[in-house]
């Protein structure tokens, strides 16, 4: 009996060990299949350093220019014996991020490296020939936040122009769009309202990375720079910043968290009004208010709108600087409850319109300049939306008005997406799953016919037909899974691929 007991226990131990080994092997196989996430800066220094070796390098960066271990790119290049770093260039807020929004930044010598630091937010926003005398290649490495009026992307564009004019190579090290790469919202800029908070006809929330924007600017707006982009690995369009595993480094003094970035494309519109956008508090852009607001009534009206993915909490605050500094202000805090469904631009306009309608005697847009343009107009990218708010028009009618231009931009944008899924990728998944026996022959025939049609629509760039047939593909997958003609594994993989394609074509 004792021997039998020992044999049974031993068998269980062996089977348990075998299960652990098999599980470990499965985990290793999954890890091997997944592409490791790497930032553009890490790809450059680990795999593509030949792009800058034996060249004099000028670096445009700020505190976000760090690798995945939070080491500054300035320090890494300065101490690399294979790299000759000759000059630094600072955007708004400076290389070290110690200047407030709009604050003039002057030329100085960097204390750490002893290198000259040229301001691109001082007397000039475009590098002059004198600033580029000792440079063969300009390197751009700054974290964007995905909104048209965040100025770093125009620092990049001006520097690209200077590089083209002075026969200098330009390299962009790519970083994630923290708002994900799917969501494209808001009106496309009217070029009559172009400024440093909106220099090109792109929507307020563009859904692109800096490298993708660089290619779009370079081709669509005839910059013509000798442009190279160093892509990330392992980044997918649906990833928000917190999906990357990266630490969030403040891109600017009033952009402390991902939550700030998520509300920013809509909440920053208040910079064009006399209402505080929360500067001078610990929750910039999340807190909105003014001394004349009744916070409870304001929050109640906004919550009754039942806007997707957001809740408004009555809040009071006292800014330490900027608008209403030292004055107790009342309003709301914006709480995002569903990032996927939250519509930042439309939400921001609803909040602006609500305050305008509640307090017509107190609420004000910033004053117009000599051309009749308010700062609000520059932020939203046109003059008609301010007029529509003043005339009592609905936000829904505004969205409908800008939709055609937005759809046209999406068609252009699609040509410049670096990180995207194609029908070819869906076909590849389909054939791999057929080989593993996860798709029945009958289901394979129907799915293949559907994918063939999608391929034709993709080649013709027919967005409406792509959307319709991708939605049909999702229904077909549901049917085949319900009939047990494809396994749950196949269903989940193909559904993920199809949904990713649909978001790219919406």
Can you offer a commentary on this structure?
The chain has 506 residues and is of the alpha/beta class. It is built from 15 helices and twelve strands. A seven-stranded mixed β-sheet has the order 3-4-2-1-5-6-9. The chain has a three-stranded antiparallel β-sheet with strand order 10-12-11. Helix 4 (152-165) links the parallel strand 5 (137-141) and strand 6 (169-173). Helix 4 crosses helix 5. The chain is globular, with a radius of gyration of 26 Å.
Quaternary assembly: single chain
Proportion in β-strands: 5-15%
Strand order in space, largest sheet: 3-4-2-1-5-6-9
Q: Give Rg in angstroms.
A: 26 Å
Helix percentage: 40-55%
> How many DSSP E strands?
12
**Tell me, what's the shape?**
globular
Low-confidence stretches: 1-33
Order of helices and strands: HHEHEEEEHEEEHEHEHEEHHHHHHHH
Helix run count: 15
Quote the distance from N terminus to C terminus. 69 Å
Largest sheet: 7 strands, mixed
Q: Which structural class do you get from the secondary structure elements?
A: alpha/beta
Average of pLDDT: 91
């Amino acid at each position: 009996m004792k021997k039998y007991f020992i044999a049974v226990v031993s068998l269980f131990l062996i089977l348990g060990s075998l299960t652990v080994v098999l599980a470990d092997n499965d985990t290793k196989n999954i890890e091997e299949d997944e592409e490791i996430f790497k930032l553009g800066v890490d790809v450059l220094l680990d795999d593509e350093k030949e792009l800058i070796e034996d060249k004099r390098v000028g670096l445009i960066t700020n505190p976000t220019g760090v690798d995945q271990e939070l080491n500054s790119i300035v320090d890494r290049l300065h101490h690399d014996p294979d790299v000759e770093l000759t000059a630094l260039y600072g955007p708004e807020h400076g290389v070290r991020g110690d200047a407030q929004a709009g604050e003039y930044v002057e030329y100085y010598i960097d204390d750490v490296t002893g290198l000259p630091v040229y301001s691109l937010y001082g007397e000039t926003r475009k590098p002059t020939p004198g600033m580029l005398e000792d440079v063969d290649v300009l390197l751009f490495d700054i974290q964007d936040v995905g909104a048209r009026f965040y100025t770093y992307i125009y620092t990049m564009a001006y520097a690209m122009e200077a590089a083209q004019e002075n026969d200098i190579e330009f390299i962009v090290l790519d970083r994630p769009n923290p708002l994900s790469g799917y969501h494209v919202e808001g009106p496309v800029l009217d070029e009559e309202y172009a400024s440093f908070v909106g220099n090109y006809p792109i929507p307020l929330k563009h859904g692109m990375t800096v490298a993708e924007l660089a290619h779009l600017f370079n081709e669509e707006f005839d910059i013509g720079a000798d442009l190279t982009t160093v892509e990330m690995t392992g980044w997918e369009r649906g990833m928000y910043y917190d999906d990357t595993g990266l630490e969030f480094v403040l891109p600017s003094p009033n952009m402390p968290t991902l939550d700030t970035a998520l509300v920013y494309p809509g909440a920053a519109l208040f910079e064009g009004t006399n209402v505080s956008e929360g500067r001078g508090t610990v929750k910039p852009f999340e807190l909105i208010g003014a001394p004349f607001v009744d916070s409870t009534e304001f929050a109640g009206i906004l919550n009754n709108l039942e806007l997707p993915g957001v809740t408004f909490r009555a809040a009071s605050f006292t800014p330490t600087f900027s608008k209403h500094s030292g004055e107790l202000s009342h309003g709301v805090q914006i709480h995002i409850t569903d990032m996927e469904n939250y519509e930042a631009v439309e939400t921001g306009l609803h909040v602006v319109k609500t305050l305008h309608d509640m307090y017509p005697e107190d609420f004000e847009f910033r004053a117009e300049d000599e051309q009749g343009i308010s700062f609000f107009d520059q932020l939203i990218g046109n003059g008609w939306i301010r007029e529509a708010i003043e005339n009592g028009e609905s936000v829904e009618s505004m969205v409908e008005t800008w939709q055609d231009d937005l759809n046209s931009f999406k068609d252009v944008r699609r040509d410049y997406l670096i990180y995207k899924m194609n029908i070819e990728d869906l076909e590849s998944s389909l054939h791999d799953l057929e080989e593993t026996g996860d798709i029945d022959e009958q289901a394979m025939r129907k799915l293949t016919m559907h994918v063939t049609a999608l391929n034709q629509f993709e080649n013709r760039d027919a967005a409406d037909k792509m959307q319709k047939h991708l939605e049909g593909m999702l229904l077909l997958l549901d049917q085949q899974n319900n009939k047990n003609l494809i396994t749950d594994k196949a269903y989940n993989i193909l559904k993920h691929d199809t949904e990713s394609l649909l978001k790219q074509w919406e």
